[in-house]
Amino acid sequence: MTPAIGVVIGLVLGLTGAGGSVFAVPLLIILLQLPMQQASGIALAAVAASALYGSLRNRGSHRILWVPALVLGAGGVISAPVGQWLAQRLPETALLIGFNLLALIIAARMYISAVRSPEDAKVTRANPGDYTLEGPLCRLSPTGQLQLRPRCMAGLALGGLLVGLLSGLFGVGGGFLIVPLLLFLSRIGMAQAVATSLVIIAVISGAGFVSYWQMGGALDVNMLGQIAAGGIAGMMLGQWISGKINHVLKQKVFAVSLVAISIVSLFS
Question: What is the distance in angstroms between the CA of the first residue and the CA of the last residue of the chain?
């Protein structure tokens, strides 16, 4: 049962480009009867391992924009411990309700996106694509390198702080926020956004888990190892089969499933 939860985390991350942790937390609560705080800490570790594996697969593809990844990741590393600090001081019920509201927002956004912009749903972290060269805050040179301007760096840093706070608070990787943020700031192509996002998720989720551990969070090493291993296996499977499935249908099924599992975890 425990490795299977990890497989689901990695599979969802590999198939959809986001959402591994929003499935992980309710599954850990429902199937393993873990409290919200412990479930979020373990979810962060599993997502970090899966995202790291996916990033290593992308390292030679020239799709990762390293400067945005580092700036956003640095912001997340700063704020993820704050999120964990808050999580340890908020009531369990408040955390559970907040997480499920966030999950429902993610599900609604993904379903609406699949209906209104089906072409965007065709690109996940496994697939390449083209990109444009200009954006409102961040601009890319003709060689595809980010131009380091103050407004761009400030936007990336503030985005990283927000993602890190939510990651530490609820145990989410933040891919559902990172990709739209990168597209809004720079209008890079979807493939570069999701490849860069994977690096950021690995950094921020890792920082959130370390904060959880250092603040005395309960840690079952055997459980964590099984879930992380399952997550990497699921990521491999998800990236392999991603191009073989109807992407719009896949995104809709993800959204509906997330709503269902959120409702079950809220009332379990």
Answer: 18
Torsion angles phi and psi, residue 137, rounded to 5: -110, -45
Contact, 13 vs 238, CB < 8 A?
Answer: yes
Q: What pTM was computed for the model?
A: 0.78
Q: Are 160 and 72 in contact (CB under 8 A)?
A: yes
Helix then strand count (H, E) for the chain reads 10, 0
* H helical segments located in 88-174: 92-116, 150-170
- Work out the number of other CB atoms within 10 angstroms of the CB of residue 260: 12
Helix 221-241 to helix 36-58 angle (10° resolution) is: 40
The Cα–Cα gap between 76 and 63 comes to 21
pLDDT in tens, 157-216: 898 899 889 888 887 767 677 877 777 777 676 677 778 888 888 898 888 899 888 888
**What are the residues whose beta carbons fall under 8 Å from the beta carbon of 143, sequence distance 6 or more?**
none
Mapped onto helix, strand or coil, the DSSP state of residue 146 is strand
Rounded Cα distance, 60 and 152, in Å? 25
| Residues of the chain by 3-state class (helix, strand, coil), percent to 5 | 75, 0, 25
Ranges of the chain with pLDDT below 70? 16-20, 60-61, 117-136, 140-148, 173, 175, 187, 189-190, 242-243, 245-247, 250, 268
56 three-state secondary structure: helix
| Token pair recorded at residue 20 | 């591994």
Rounded Cα gap, residues 45 and 21, in angstroms: 10
